[in-house]
Design brief:
single chain, 304 residues, Rossmann fold, six-stranded mixed sheet, 37% helix
């Protein structure tokens, strides 16, 4: 699959402190790439570097096959829309008047305004002064402004921050339509796994500036499959016996686990342990949820 955003050893440091450290980001074309991490993990700084708003200390950025530099930055930005932090607007002007100004700055046909207003469901509020808009309406107006010029890539930094549940649902549904209906690749950041889980196709997890996971979201889900907790008469020897027979056995936090939920594997493991004079004292199925996996990854990144 073609990659539309690629970073290589991307690093940003302020006064010797690395905010982003050797980041190798890879965003496939046509994807909704969920950029996950706690507040302060380096998500916003990374997105600003991709847009050329912040200069990297080290590393390279490629967008749509072109290396981002001062010479071609404006050309790249013509194919890129963004909503970073809170959207800028003139409160005394209407939604449509604000979009007219953005269209003028972007040098795009004002006929596009009607279309982007339809995309974000703002046709009926376009003549209302933006100062009277709710936060959700302001976010949608910011998204409409980002869509002017029909960009190939859209960068959205925490677009649901501060929205009520209805606003979050509406924004999520809007984002999900963009790749399918308009061919737009979306890089969306969030500190909420549940948010990304409902709209992303791919995910990257960043913590303390370091990328600690990157793959399809389905791969992250695979880690949440059920496993079997075992307590035996001698757990350390049981681990050695199971691993020697190529069973997916692990020892975590002082506990023995069999990383499988298949009944035939459990039966074979039981027979193997009994044949080695090891008794099973307790057996229970455990299932990690996605939130636990996210927290474990972030914890691992924090310890790294």
């Amino acid at each position: 699959m073609e990659t539309v955003i690629q970073t290589s050893s991307l690093t940003k440091q302020y006064q010797g402190n690395k905010v982003v450290s050797e980041l190798d980001l890879s965003v496939p074309a046509g994807s909704i790439y969920g950029f996950l991490g706690p507040n302060g993990a380096g998500k916003s700084t990374t997105m600003k570097m991709i847009l050329g708003l912040v200069k990297p200390s080290e590393g390279n950025i490629s967008v749509l096959g072109k290396t981002v530099n001062q010479k071609n930055r404006l050309t790249i930005l013509q194919n890129t829309g963004s909503l970073i932090e809170s959207p800028a607007y003139y409160g005394h002007l209407s939604g449509r008047e604000n979009l007219n100004l953005v269209a003028s700055l972007k040098q795009v046909d004002t006929k596009q305004i009607d279309h982007v207003l339809r995309i974000v469901h703002m046709e009926n509020a376009q003549q209302k002064k933006v100062g009277q808009y709710s936060l959700g309406m302001k976010q949608r107006l910011g998204l409409a402004a980002a869509l002017l010029g029909y960009p190939k890539i859209l960068l959205l930094d925490e677009p649901t921050n501060g929205l009520d549940p209805a606003g979050i649902q509406e924004m999520r549904e809007l984002i999900c339509t963009l790749p399918k209906e308009y061919g737009i690749t979306v890089l969306v950041s969030s500190h909420l796994l549940a948010e990304i889980d409902q709209m992303a196709t791919h995910a990257g997890i960043i913590n303390h500036g370091c990328l600690i996971f990157q793959d399809k979201l389905s791969v992250l889900h695979e880690h949440s499959r059920s496993r079997i907790f075992l307590r035996t008469t001698e757990d350390k020897r049981a681990l050695s016996v199971l691993k020697g027979a190529k069973f997916p056995a692990v020892f975590e936090h002082g506990k023995l686990y069999l990383n499988t939920g298949r009944e035939e594997d459990i039966l074979r493991a039981g027979r193997l342990l009994f044949s080695n004079d090891l008794g099973i004292l307790h057996l229970a199925e455990e299932q990690k949820n996605l939130e636990d996996i996210f927290l474990n990854l972030v914890g691992r990144g924090a310890d790294a």
